Amino acid sequence: MSLRLSTQTLVASALLFLAAGCKDRDVVVYRTAKEGPAPSATATAQKMPPPSTDKLPDGHPPIDGSAAPAATAPNGSAMGALPGSAVAQGNALKWTAPAHWQTKAAGSVRKGSYAIPGENGAAGDLSITAFPGDTGGLHANINRWRGQVGLAPASNAEIDQSVEHLDVNGLHVDLVEMVGPSGIRLLGAIVPHQQETWFFKLTGPDALIAGEKAAFRAFVQTVQVR
User: Fold this and answer.
1) Handedness of CA 130, 132, 134, 139 (dihedral sign)
2) Hey, how many other C-beta atoms are within 10 angstroms of the C-beta on 207?
3) Going edge to edge, which strands form the sheet with 164-168?
4) Does domain 93-225 have CATH number 3.40.1000.10?
5) Cβ neighbour number for residue 143 with a 10 Å cutoff
6) Residue 127: pLDDT band by 50, 70, 90 thresholds?
């Protein structure tokens, strides 16, 4: 009888011990944080922002160091060197302006500057500039002037027919006249001298500048070497 009770007691104790062990294991399992698998390289890449596809602003130089394409005229011909990037040094030429032309400050680019007064507040502008070299040649220079008054580029043959050539005071002068669709007239003279090209340009309202043609021609004939 006592042996049976002892055996039953032993079995009951063992069951209690096993139950307690299982309970402790359950607690441990539920309190331990479960670690997930490490993120893959593909998942990481998907979280990265895509590279920018924005285009550079118009006129922005290439960022890869390559050279920008050379500029061409609207007719497809090469424009050559543009006036304005460099200014001829010194004042190799001189002139005498008509008495009614009003002297203006020349500035950093102009060698000379005049205002030509007209009626009802109208005014013309005479600019004198000089640049090293031929700045692209006669045809390119005249086509630039045509563009300034709103005219399309002309062919070399058309330009040759429109230019008047003068030789004054040992200088060769190319004279040209044009009127744009907006009513702006331009009288111009191009004077090569040594390694420079001088530009004498009179612009303004059509009627006013047309009335100054004789004065401009007389002015050009006063240009000479200092």
Assistant:
1) negative
2) 12
3) 102-103, 112-117, 123-132, 196-205, 184-193, 171-179, 164-168
4) yes
5) 24
6) very high
Give 44's pLDDT tier (boundaries 50, 70, 90).
very low
Summary count for the chain: helices (H), strands (E): 6, 9
Q: Are 189 and 221 in contact (CB under 8 A)?
A: no
Tokens of 48: 């990265």
Burial class (CB in 10 A: 0-12, 13-18, 19+), 114: buried
pLDDT single digits (tens) 208-217: 999 999 999 9
Tell me the one-letter amino acid at 64.
D
How are the residues of the chain apportioned to helix, strand and coil, as percentages rounded to the nearest 5?
30, 25, 45
**Which residues are CB-contacts of 44 (< 8 A; sequence separation ≥ 6)?**
none
Strand runs labelled E in the chain: 93-94, 102-103, 112-117, 123-132, 164-168, 171-179, 184-193, 196-205, 224-225
Q: Residue 149: phi, psi to the nearest 5?
A: -100, 5
Rg (CA), the chain: 44
Helix (H, G, I), strand (E, B) or coil at 182: coil
Task: Give domain limits for the chain.
Answer: 1-31, 93-225
Give the predicted TM-score (pTM) of the model.
Answer: 0.64
